[in-house]
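Input.
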Amino acid sequence: MEIGARPYLLLEKALPLQPAPHGSPAVTLASSCSVPGWRLSLGSGEGAGDPLRWWRPLVLEPSACPLESLKLPRRGTTRCASHMHLQLVPLQPQHAARGPGAFSGCAVFLPAAAQKTDVGGESTGTSINHSQTLLQRLQELLRQGNASDVVLRVQAAGTDEVRVFHAHRLLLGLHSELFRELLSNQSEVVLQEPRDGAAVFDKFIRYLYCGELIVLLAQAIPLHRLATKYGVSSLQRGVADYMRAHLAGGAGPAVGWYHYAVSTGDEALRQSCLQFLAWNLSAVAGSAEWGAVSPELLAQLLPRSDLVLQDELELFHALEAWLGRARPPPAVAERALRSIRYPMIPPAQLFQLQARSAALARHGPAVADLLLQAYQFHAASPLHYAKFFDVNGSSFLPRNYLAPAWGAPWVINNPARDDRSTSFQTQLGPSGHDSGRRVTWNVLFSPRWLPVSLRPVYADAAGTALPLARPEDGRPRLVVTPASSGGDAAGVSFQKTVLVGTRQHGRLLVRHAYSFHQSSEEAGDFLAHADLQRRNSEYLVENALHLHLIVKPVYHPLIRTPK
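Output.
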């Protein structure tokens, strides 16, 4: 194509699709380009004609040249496309004169599964797929035991119950090295399994034959244990993914799964459980699961600043209830009580705790210094207190409190529709000296905010901006700013956190949390992967976005304590 026809177009061409070496959709650009920035638009279609669909434009900086592998979004249209279409447009029109010669080569790769078949020189081919029939026959083979050459006798531990499976050495050995060794020189084996494992062994064997199964919550741990024991890594990963997904939806028994992950050394699952418990501690502390928390898990949770609960007093009451049930050694109880952030509890409530708490009556001397510290903190202004004591410790940092003094909920119906705004007030600081002082915050939510690099800033000869930015090219944006920058907030900086979730039984169930840097008014990754136009999006509840905005005052680094 002639450059003169579209003065700002560096490159436009249709390229045949080729099988990808590693099965990942990608585009490769070999380039010696020195253009400061340019925009790449990608589409798929038949031949060199109009594309079926254009993907979101990608803005590329000089550091991206040359591009070795640029991942493309997976789109259904690529399955029937023979060509990929590319357009490159400079972000600054004066760079258009450098022309397409700046690019030394360009190729597009898609996985072989997305390509049309070319058999016998034909331009199109027909796919013959009888995989479902094969799966049905494998199920019948397992169910009827035809031509089986091994017998598995699965005995539930502590019982006389034995389940017998007629299986096939080849199929079992394909998935499991352990089965291959066990069945190498014998045709019948007895397998001892826990009761819950024996109860789901039929599902486990079915997966080895068909590559699929249906998992229920109560079956996740026994299936994961079987997959781990017999080395079926694909099932192990699949069940672990299932557990993490159900944790995010609030359906999984997070405490039990945490302890199981620790026992098996599954660090990814352990971290997922720990994060869920931290974000939903208020809900978990009021459930039957709280009594099953181990001292080790409690020690992991209490020091965290990202715990989500109503206030610090709620955490104290939850800890006191746990101490009453678990009856841990005195050293464990005192260590846990010292993890409470007493300066975050108002003095009136501290008085009540000292007078009525059974835990403080038993272990009061172990936290007497912390209670005195809290009273001193509330009695003086933070600036005056900091002249004599260190306020940089975690005791003086609020957690993610849901109480009205620290934030506000915000439910946005039809969030993909248009921009919204709201305002709320928070307490200036946790000190009793600041309890009557408020800071007003303004919040702006935009579902389709476009970065400057994607906004049309110049036009071609016909007066049309190049390229046209579509609404779906934008991303959600949330900006939180103080209504005024008066002197009331001197010596205080603010951390902002946005919780995204839903409410179940009157409690907030957190699915995602975004934190702002103290010097920033927005979180750069806020809902970066959310599709708010999809009604069944995991970020939406009945087509509404449930947010909780939290502002945490921090007395450092503006306050300097004496050395």
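Residues 299 and 322 are 12 Å apart (CA to CA).
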